[in-house]
Amino acid sequence: MRVDVLGVSIDAVTLPEAVRTVEGFIAEGGPHLVATANAEMVMAAGRDRELARILAGAALVVPDGAGVVWAARHLGHPVPERVAGFDLAQALLARAAEVGWRVFFFGGLPGIAAKASEAATAKWPGLVVAGVRDGYFAAEESADIAAAIRDSRPHILLAALGVPKQEKWLACHETALSVPVAMGVGGTFDVMAGVMRRAPLWMQRSGLEWLYRLGCEPSRIGRMMALPRFVLRVLAAKKH
Ligand code: UDP
User: Fold this and answer.
1) Dihedral, CA of residue 17, residue 22, residue 26 and residue 29, to nearest 10
2) Which residue's CA is the closest to the ligand 1 atom numbered 24?
3) Strand 102-107 to strand 128-133: parallel, antiparallel, or no bridges (unpaired)?
4) Is 108 in the pocket of ligand 1 (CB under 6 A)?
5) Which of 67, 76, 161, 236 could be stapled to 166 by a disulfide with Cβ–Cβ 3.0 to 4.6 Å?
6) In whole angstroms, what separates CA 63 from the centre of its chain?
7) d(Cα 16, Cα 79) in Å, to the nearest integer?
8) How many domains is the chain built from?
9) 36 CA closest ligand 1 atom index
10) Which residues constitute the domain of residue 181?
11) What is 33-73 written as a DSSP string?
12) Cβ atoms within 10 Å of 57's Cβ, excluding its own
């Protein structure tokens, strides 16, 4: 079931259901885009038609973010839980190691994707890494990068280029990539590589992960002004 949050359709799934859904995508063959919607992304989609169109066409959009979970409940069509992009990526890596899916790590500063993949293979020894590539490149290199990813034959492509660059890049190169599942994972590799930390569990559970991230990276303040605007929009949407 999909629920509408300010024009973005979000799948009302739990983490295990999201993993099973991805399993179905891989069995079916590609391409499928997996997106992780938080308040910032919903607000970005409100002013960026290309992003809105990509999200509307995505195969799976999980409720990543306390704001989206709150909004869904407030608007009268709750989602079962928050499915953080980081957690979904970890669950998919664990499953990949069990069943032999090949995973490509694309994005982050030079060396970060490699470090993240090493952390993953240390944690899940059976994991097959199809390849790694950093996320800083000239636009003209995109076609070659997509071809290299395709030639490495991954089942899952994790792309960490930030929102909305990762969603746009994946959508633009969908045919060339010919990957069953491509997912935008934002800062996931930075956390896996150990250069960034996730908020403590109590903050994640009380919906305060955004505050922790702001504390770590005060320069996020501009982007985070989307949060209060999101809350106001949801409150206004309820009234209508
Ligand atoms: N990044 C990248 N290429 C770019 C811009 C960003 O690989 O051109 C990476 C950046 O190094 C970081 C991630 O994308 O690892 C973005 O992380 P962030 O936490 O900002 O993700 P978001 O909140 O946008 O999902």
Assistant:
1) 110
2) 162
3) parallel
4) yes
5) 161
6) 10
7) 14
8) 1
9) 25
10) 2-239
11) EEEEE-HHHHHHHHH-HHHHHHHHH-SEEEE-SHHHHHHHH
12) 11
Ligand 1 mean position, distance from CA 116 (Å): 14
Q: What does DSSP assign to residue 218?
A: G
135 in contact with ligand 1, CB cutoff 6 A: yes
Question: Amino acid identity, residue 119?
Answer: A
Here the tokens at position 199 are 């908020």
Please report where in the chains the tokens 């989307």 appear, as a residue: 226
* pLDDT tens per residue across all 240 residues of the chain: 999 999 999 999 999 999 999 999 999 998 999 999 999 999 999 999 999 999 999 999 999 999 999 999 999 999 999 999 999 999 999 999 999 999 999 999 999 999 999 999 999 999 999 999 999 999 999 999 999 999 999 999 999 999 999 999 999 999 999 999 999 999 999 999 999 999 999 999 999 999 999 999 999 999 889 999 999 999 999 876
